[in-house]
Amino acid sequence: MTIKKEVKRQRYFKIQTYLGLTSILSIILLPLLTYFGDFQPVTQPLVTMAFFLVTTMEVNSYIYRLKNSYILKLNIGKEYNFTNRENEIAIQIIKGASYKIISENMFISYGTVRKHASNIFMKSKVVNREGLMKKFRK
Q1: Which of 2, 40, 41, 110 is deepest in the core (most CB within 10 A)?
Q2: pLDDT of the residue at 138
Q3: Which pLDDT value is given to residue 2?
Q4: What is the C-alpha end-to-end distance of the chain, expressed in Å?
Q5: pLDDT value at position 74?
């Protein structure tokens, strides 16, 4: 399961890299073509292709996030007004996942997980992970 997930992630980043480099190359060619003459029949399709590639990158990114989002099955923080993201992180903390694992699962930075965890602790009036686990495991 972990290997399969890592392969998917590598494939996604490879596609994003190729799309990005191609669009950057297209945009870099514009001043060169303009400098050496009037190549309007070439520059207009080049600009269109660059914008198409950037749009493709955004759509690909959105689809990837939809497929790999952590599925919210349980709303434990309803009474504490947790946001959806805080709820997702709280569920993983209660299951015993470390901040590093949570950040990898949710494709966010370690610091972001810590900030969300801090907000969770403050809203649920607990001091640490153990307190949160005791409060919500009952």
Answers
A1: 110
A2: 59
A3: 43
A4: 30
A5: 61
Asked if 26 and 49 count as a contact pair (C-beta separation under 8 A), the reply is yes
Sequence-ordered list of residues with C-beta below 8 angstroms from that of 49, at least 6 positions apart, any chain: 23, 26
User: Is the confidence at residue 3, as pLDDT, over 50?
Assistant: no
pLDDT in tens, 70-109: 555 566 777 888 888 888 888 889 888 999 998 888 888 9
Return the sign of the alpha-carbon dihedral for residues 4, 7, 97, 81.
negative
CA dist list (Å): 35 to 6, 30, 39, 44, 131: 44, 9, 10, 15, 66
pLDDT at 84: 81
Closest by CA to 123, choosing from 88, 93, 82, is: 82
pTM of the model: 0.50
What letter represents residue 21's amino acid? L
What phi and psi values does residue 49 have, to the nearest 5 degrees? -65, -40
**Alpha helix (H) ranges present in 1-138?**
2-35, 40-67, 84-94, 99-106, 110-123, 129-137
DSSP state of 69: S
